[in-house]
Amino acid sequence: MTETLKIKNLHVAVEGKPILRGVNLTINRGETHALMGPNGSGKSTLGNVIMGHPNYEVTEGVIELNGENILEWDATARARAGIFMAFQRPMAIPGVKMADFLRHATTNVRNPARKEGEELIPMRQFRKELTEKMEQLKMDVEFARRYVNDGFSGGEMKRAEILQMAMLRPKFAILDETDSGLDVDAVKLASQSIAQIGKETADSAAMGTLIITHHDKLLDQNTPDYTHVMLGGKIVETGGVELAHELFTDGYDRIRARYPEAAADERAMATTEAVAI
Amino acid sequence: MATDVLHETNLGEINKYDFITPSHDVFKAKRGLSADIVGQISEMKQEPSWMRDFRLESLKIFESKPMPKWGGDIGINFQDIFYYLKPTNEQGKSWDDVPQEIKDTFDKLGIPEAEKKYLAGVKAQFESEVVYGSLQEDLGNKGVIFTDTDTAVREHPKLLREYFGKIIPPSDNKFAALNSAVWSGGSFIYVPPGVKIEFPLQAYFRINAEQMGQFERTLIIVDEGASVHYVEGCTAPMYTTESLHSAVVEVIVKKNGRCRYTTIQNWANNIYNLVTKRAVAYQDSLMEWIDGNLGSRLTMKYPAVYMMEPGARGEILSIAFSSKGQHQDAGAKVVHCAPHTKSRIISKSISKNGGRSSYRGLCKVEDGAVGSKSNVVCDALILDAASRSDTYPYIEVEEQDVQVEHEASVSRIGEEQLFYLMSRGLSEAEASSMIVSGFIEPLIKELPMEYAVEMNRLIELQMEGSVG
């Protein structure tokens, strides 16, 4: 049976103000979905809510992983169940080395029942795997000794997120503007790496991917099966890859004209968004 | 590295610091404090009359001084405490001479293993006396003296008397006076000119009798061009009634000398830890205090460096961790008394479960100390809304041509940081623990390996059950 991440009629508020207003989205393993939309339409919120961010209040709807409602699960449980998000702005954790952090993360995700203090994956095995992945991403080995995201350039942060995905081999991955801040070559490498990682999950079934992006370069190697357009906290239109290309060229005005109600919500949310971020 | 150590080390039972070994004391002074008791302590130790007089004079000063009005709330009944306890008749000459019960306690602390690996000389203080000590022969051959202070009174009277109580006189403060009256044990170190000791000298201290004060007295003299790293670590078992620890540590670093003094203290939650530590640093010398404070009900401790001659440097790194019912009032003092002296203070504190950490520091630059530089950085991390952190920096500059910098930051453990780590499969507790160990990493890496391990263990134990 294909594993599925299903979002049904999801309404989300932050400090009482609605951000998402009834999102429906079904992602099967092996599918690539592109999620587009103007700034402030709720794309990152959707990603954060799927990952289990505690500050977002789900007022209606469910998120199901293979038919099971996961809304009550914390981020830890969701990560261990195979959900991953590459953050748009990952947090710095000063004093904690990338390698130590990744070793804990990798151990926990591969052994979801692990309790604190139980053994980590053997150092030798971990180091070998990490070195391989870093070579694939053209990252210097020194990187593993740096503190997590501390003083990283924008590009380094994004690559570090991809490295984490490569190590954790999730079933479902949300990539929140993983291409922003990267130059053309770096986007190309990222695009290839994401496609490659998508095929290399732990149980050999391909990854289900939700790519939040403003550019089409990331989609070169990750042709979306579906493209969704979000406006005013709702997915207003879904199409194929041609929709993605159309939006890159023409922008969102046609969408706003076609969905005046969502466009009105978008304007209302513009004031709220400052709070949400 | 820090987190590797944190999670790879077999932590053993959580309550490893809770064990209590029954006391079989040879001699126990009566509870309370009086000239009689002070005289008795001096007599038991068969001290020369100058030391007995010093003690009695100190007692008078103690009685005449009021309790400090600042810092923490000191709820001690001085008449309710034992001031002297001698656990065995003879100081152990070798490991075989040490009583089994005491060995068991050391085993629980991991002392013999530690010694095999790293130690040149161990002075382990069980209750008030040093019961076991060893010193590598070559140190002795180089003229290094490393002994307990009681022995030094008998065997090195001239040297000891020249410096004892000179850096911190009994009149300095109420608790220095108390220590001067009833002191017992502690380390005495003399490093002759030009002798550089490459490995850390270490001592473990341990309070193990209820209601017993521990008043060790340490004196370190680093002669010209010499260097030493002294490490002191303490773990104390849990008790339900108050206990008092009030030490005095005096350090002299002569021209071109170096001294690093590292302390890791993890006191039971009912202990008052009121310590006076001060060093004087002469021309082009370096004095470093590295100070880790965990546990205790109240800690008041402000290691000081007085830079007496040009080119002297003082560095103080400190970590304080306070949890429920604990108040860490810790900090540092640097006093620039001569031109071109330099100091640096880095202080990190962590408060959780309603704990309170305060940084209290003094940076003083005397008139004429031209070209001096001081840099103070204190960072506080607060883990929950019930906890508290305060900063009390005192800066007194009497000279124009100086550079004094002070930075302070307070941060709460970020929800976003926690979420980020949890989204990678770390549990909330594991994530908090990782953020905390990252926060103190800049200090941990200054510690000798085994102390870094110990410190991380202690932090991890402190973090157990801190979330959720």
What does this protein structure show overall?
The complex is a heterodimer of chains A (277) and B (468). Chain A is an alpha/beta fold. Chain A has a domain at 4-88 and 171-276: Rossmann fold. Chain A is 38% helix and 26% strand. Chain A contains 9 helices and 12 strands. Chain A has helices at residues 43-51, 75-80, 98-110, 123-136, 154-168, 184-199, 241-250, 253-258, 260-276; strands spanning 4-14, 17-28, 32-36, 57-65, 68-69, 83-86, 93-97, 147-148, 172-176, 208-212, 226-231, 234-239. Chain A has a 6-stranded mixed sheet with strand order 6-9-10-3-11-12, sandwiched between helices. A 4-stranded antiparallel sheet of chain A has the order 2-1-4-5, with helices on one face. In chain A, strands 7-8 form a two-stranded antiparallel sheet. The model of chain A is unreliable at 273-277 (pLDDT under 50). By secondary structure, chain B is an alpha/beta fold. Chain B contains 12 helices and 23 strands. In chain B, the strands form 3 sheets. In chain B, strands 5, 6, 8, 10, 11, 13, 15, 16, 18, 20 and 22 form an 11-stranded mixed sheet that branches. The longest helix of chain B has 17 residues, at 428-444. Chain B is globular and about 65 Å long. Residues 1-19, 88-94, 111-134, 204-212 and 236-240 of chain B have low confidence and may be disordered. The interface between A and B is medium-sized, with 36 and 32 residues.
Distance between the termini of chain A: 38 Å
Strand arrangement within the widest β-sheet of chain A reads 6-9-10-3-11-12
| Most strands sheet of chain A | 6 strands, mixed
Structural class based on helices, strands and sheet pairing of chain A: alpha/beta
Helicity range of the residues of chain B? 25-40%
Most extensive interface: pair and counts?
A-B, 36 and 32 residues
The total count of strands of chain B amounts to 23
Query: What value does the Rg of chain B take, in angstroms?
Result: 21 Å
Q: Gap between N and C termini of chain B, in Å? A: 27 Å
Structural class of chain B: alpha/beta
Summed up, the domain count of chain B is 1
Percent helix of chain A, as a range, is 25-40%
CATH class (first level) name of one domain in chain A: Alpha Beta
CA-based shape of chain B: globular
Rg of Cα set of chain A: 18 Å
Q: How do the helices and strands follow one another from N- to C-terminus of chain A?
A: EEEHEEHEEHHEHEHEEEHHH
Using the coordinates shown, work out and report the CATH topology of one domain in chain A: Rossmann fold
